[in-house]
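As a next step, the fold was encoded as tokens, giving this record:
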Amino acid sequence: MKTSIKTVRISVIGFGNVGGGVAEVIKRKREEIARKYGLNIKIVGIADLKGVVVDENGLSEEAIMGLHTGDKKRGKMADMTTVGVIKEIEHEVMVEATPTNVEDGEPGLTHIITALESGRHVVTSNKGPLALEYKRLMELAAKREKELRFEATVGGAMPIISLVRENLAGNGILSITGILNGTCNYILTRMAEEGLPYEHVLKEAQEIGIAEADPSKDVEGIDTAVKLVILANSIFGRNATCKDVEVTGITEITPDALQLADDAGYVIKLIGEVDREGCLKVAPRLVPQEDPLNVGGTMNVATIKTDLAGDITVIGKGAGPIEAASAILSDIISIYRCR
């Protein structure tokens, strides 16, 4: 039982699905977090394209809702830039939840650098900056003696990075293999179950919000490749970029191919693999039907092969605002449990 409560002030930069999810889980879990971990987490600044709201004493639910709905009067918008919030508002942790940009990492890259240089810890769900500038960012965090945590970038609520670093400490990690994109997994699952063509299932996935209007980064394997780069650099100590990943997507998979695989006792899944020997590959692969990697729908799965503990398989939701926020919240708590 904690005898004292430590106030942790955070900013949330990017208030779309993930940023909104962070506000929701903090609201939902506030008392439990205080009781179990001795932390009083206060959101003191939120910034995104809709505007900025700040209050160094902690934003009210009304102010947060005002930004979320675009009600500027209700939200009492501040005349500040996103970078201004990071630099000028006193807080301990910056949550970076803007959309991923794998071309140049912006604006997330600037946000993370600014936060670290301003003496803030950083927790992010944004894959772009880590895929492009992992070494630079980790060196800056170490220099500033601040934490940079990013569990939400790879498996959403499914723990991979923290599992390896904490629970599997002392193990040598031989490889990590898995399904790291729920959109592709949904499409392949539906095609296999119903014998439907790729184009039909993709349209269905877009209509129900599982696939983006432009699904290319998912279905061409780019999203999985970006996640592999983060794993390669954070788990295997590499200095990889997306250019180092051999990538094949799912756009050429046909119902006939899936049926032939089924007849032989297999399924076809988009599998990402990274190992300590240098493998970095994303491609559709035959997976035995009884294999732990055979999960359906939008689920993600990863098998971590170790030298001591053997194979450890984790399965979970890789996307979704509350799932990503779960990983972000866990990272925030972990920063203070380790100090």
